[in-house]
Specification:
It is built from eleven helices and 29 strands. It has three domains: 23-276, Beta Barrel (Thrombin, subunit H); 282-375, Pdz3 Domain; 396-476, PDZ domain (Pdz3 Domain, Roll), CATH 2.30.42. The strands form five sheets. Strands 6-5-1-3-4-8-7 form a seven-stranded antiparallel beta sheet. The chain has a six-stranded antiparallel barrel with strand order 10-11-12-15-14-13. It is an alpha+beta fold. Residues 1-40, 78-93, 95-104 and 379-390 have low confidence and may be disordered. The protein is flat and about 65 Å long.
Length: 478
């Protein structure tokens, strides 16, 4: 599905805002390479001769596990819109197939793949975010209504489940072993053409894409287009090493640069959503930037490796540990930091509360600083088991206000509306509204809202803060 186009910059300065906000893009513990592989290492599936590889064995093995996903919901679904007035020549884009934004219910299409024979499917979060109904179509033409187990917008990963068994599954690989220049294959539904196959090579690894800096993307030149979102990226061993997610384009179509989320990142998210229904993201609370040669010389460093701390967020784990602006982080535990873009994924992959040791260069000397990794508030609560947001009766996806948002609001509490469907959408509630009370009872958290809803009748009154105004909105729950 097509999300709001974002202007992206690969300059190091773009990383500053992303890390300063503390938006960690990886959750949970790091998966060991052995754990990431779901089957014993096998001989390559692609046959090679004097010419190009023969990809037919890969397609025959993995193709049946690749699914077509269609979703429908309000006209303002995440994939159906975008900044239509944005005419910047170079854009990073999610690539789904949206319906026209004409006020009618939005419909979109993407791809996914089965990772468990009992019906667990991985796809992109932007494919199903905000959808009222998700349908999964298999290669044997069977169709299933899917439940959204949960989504994680920070990594753009969603987990679906369908009521089926003995399904074909993909083989999972280790993206860390992928080499730049090796052949890879994408399977998906570009423009709705189901199970289309394209091939190319790995162009680069560990790409940081500005606000997506916590996902170390795999860059390829595999042709991917609208509808490929959520489909697998497969190596010559027939193993999935990534999920196709974004393209870099001047016109919205494929232009030779595409990006995939490493499969180990996705499996971390899947495990957390299946076990806990939510995803935890590590946080340190610093703004960092690249160490240029001139900066390295000014700090007395022999080389330009490391991550330069330009600011430390007040009250953050980094501040509590004593990190200061001007520090250069050289190592995280035993892992050397070659460039600033390497640090965010490493921090974010750690479980909140994990204690780490940073080797820091400060005022001409090296020192070690111990730090307990924090946890940032999730920008949107994971969808519940029903796949219908925080409460199927209401149709709202909500999250608590951040301290910065509270400071800008006239209220001391409230829940920010992330997405709207069902009764709330019909009542006119919009993303960005702040829910302050339900039937006159102030709302402090989602649990309190759910408890009040359970005691409510057919009609409720929500006090909404929108822009600088507060209004009561009646909602018919049916």
């Amino acid at each position: 599905m097509q999300a709001i186009p974002f202007k992206r910059s690969l300059l190091a300065l773009a990383l500053i805002a992303a890390v300063g906000a503390g938006y960690a893009r990886l959750g949970g513990q790091v998966i060991n390479p052995a754990d990431a592989v779901s089957a014993p290492v096998a001989a390559p599936l692609a046959r090679t001769g004097t010419g190009l590889p023969d990809f037919t064995p890969i397609v025959e093995h993995s193709g049946p596990a690749v699914v077509n996903i269609s979703a429908s919901g309000p006209s303002k679904m995440a994939y159906s819109g975008g900044d239509r007035n944005d005419r910047m020549p170079e854009l990073f884009r999610h690539f789904g197939i949206p319906s026209p934004d004409d006020g009618a219910p939005a419909r979109g299409m993407g791809s996914g793949f089965i990772v468990r024979a009992d019906g667990v499917i991985l796809t992109n979060a932007h494919v199903v975010s905000g959808a009222d109904e998700v349908t999964v179509k298999l290669t044997d033409k069977r169709e299933f209504k899917a439940k959204v187990v949960g989504i994680d917008k920070l990594t753009d990963i969603a987990v679906l489940r369908i009521d089926a068994s003995n399904l074909p599954v993909v083989r999972l690989g280790n993206p860390g072993s992928a080499r730049v220049g090796e052949w890879v294959v994408a399977i998906g539904s570009p423009f709705g053409f189901e199970n289309s196959v394209t091939a190319g090579i790995v162009s680069a690894k560990g790409r940081s894409l500005a606000s997506d800096s916590y996902v170390p993307f795999i860059q390829t030149d595999v042709a991917v287009n609208p509808g490929n979102s959520g489909g697998p990226l497969i190596n010559l061993d027939g193993e999935v090493i990534g999920i196709n997610s974004q393209i870099y384009s001047r016109n919205g179509g494929y232009q030779g640069v595409s990006f995939a989320i490493p499969i180990d990142v996705a499996m971390n998210i899947e495990e957390q959503l299946l076990q806990h229904g939510k995803v935890s993201h590590g946080r340190m609370g610093v703004t960092i930037q690249e160490v240029s040669q001139s900066l390295a010389e000014s700090f007395g460093l022999k080389g330009s490796a490391g991550a330069l701390v330009s600011s430390v967020e007040k009250g953050s784990p980094a501040a509590a540990a004593g990190l200061e602006p001007g520090d250069v982080i050289l190592k995280l535990n035993d892992t050397a930091i070659a460039s600033s873009s390497e640090l965010p994924p490493l921090i974010a992959a750690l479980k909140p509360g994990t204690r780490i040791t940073l080797q820091v260069w400060r005022k001409g000397g090296s020192r070690e600083i111990a730090l307990a990794v924090g946890e940032i508030p999730s920008p949107a609560l994971a969808a519940n088991k029903s796949g219908e947001g925080d409460n199927p009766r209401l149709g709202l996806s909500l999250r608590p206000l951040t301290p910065q948002e509270l400071a800008q609001s006239d209220s001391r509490a409230g829940l920010l509306v992330e997405s709207v469907s069902g009764p709330a959408a019909k009542a006119g509630i919009r993303p960005g509204d702040v829910v302050l009370s339900l039937n006159g009872q102030p709302i402090g958290d989602v649990a309190q809202l759910r408890a009040l809803l359970d005691k409510s009748g057919r009609t409720i009154a929500l006090l909404i803060e929108r822009d600088d105004a507060k209004i009561f909105v009646p909602v018919d729950l049916g």
